[in-house]
Amino acid sequence: MPLVEQRRKSRITALQFLFGLEFRPFDGEEELKDFWKNNPNRKSVRNYAETLIQGVIEKQEEIDEIIKKSLKRWNWERVGHIERVIIKIATYEAGIATLVSPRIAISEAVELAKIFGTEDAPRFVNGVLDRVFCDQGWIEKDN
Fold first, then answer.
1. Mean pLDDT score, 111-133
2. 63-86, pLDDT tens digit by residue?
3. At residue 94, does pLDDT exceed 90?
4. What does the pLDDT look like over 8-50, one tens digit per residue?
5. Going by C-beta distance under 8 Å and a sequence separation of 6 or more, which residues neighbour residue 28?
6. Residue among 129, 113, 112 nearest 121 (CA)
7. What superfamily does domain 3-135 belong to in CATH?
8. CA 135, CA 73: separation in Å to the nearest integer?
9. Domain locations along the chain
10. How far is the C-alpha of 106 from the C-alpha of 139, rounded, in Å?
11. Taking Cα atoms as reference points, which of 19, 8, 18 lies closest to residue 41?
């Protein structure tokens, strides 16, 4: 499986796990072990997904603050759960952990929003991430 496909599958898997945490607190490693029992994946997919999952969980407060500061005319609590998780993953992956370039993270987040979000989700996710990444100096605003 090419790296691009592995990474997308990892992001989808991380999205599935983290989406569940929007409705209940993380109970620890046993919960993640149970998740893997029910969602077997290639080791490479699982390793990258775990990197994203652990990173988003560990940096939750920092990620939320970064995003909240960049939201204009939106209340973070009003953002849909799926969009929220997609934005968190991209913010962690490109901004905090610098695992991929910001442009790749935005592009991949938009693709996830097309698959899992509402009709307006891709445009919303793109706009929020563009603002977040520009505000943080991770990308320069196109003129």
1. 96
2. 999 999 999 888 888 899 999 999
3. yes
4. 999 999 999 999 988 887 777 788 888 888 888 888 899 999 9
5. none
6. 113
7. NusB-like (1.10.940.10)
8. 16
9. 3-135
10. 11
11. 8
- Residue appearing with tokens 């960049």: 70
Average pLDDT over residues 117-139: 95
Task: State the amino acid at position 104 in one-letter form.
Answer: I
| DSSP sequence for 26-91 | ---HHHHHHHHHHS---HHHHHHHHHHHHHHHHTHHHHHHHHHHH-SS--GGGS-HHHHHHHHHHI
Residue with tokens 């969602």: 39
pLDDT at 143 over 70: no
Q: Which two tokens stand for residue 95?
A: 């901004």
Rounded to whole angstroms, what are the CA distances from 17 to 39, 56, 72? 10, 11, 28
Q: How far apart are the first and last CA of the chain?
A: 37
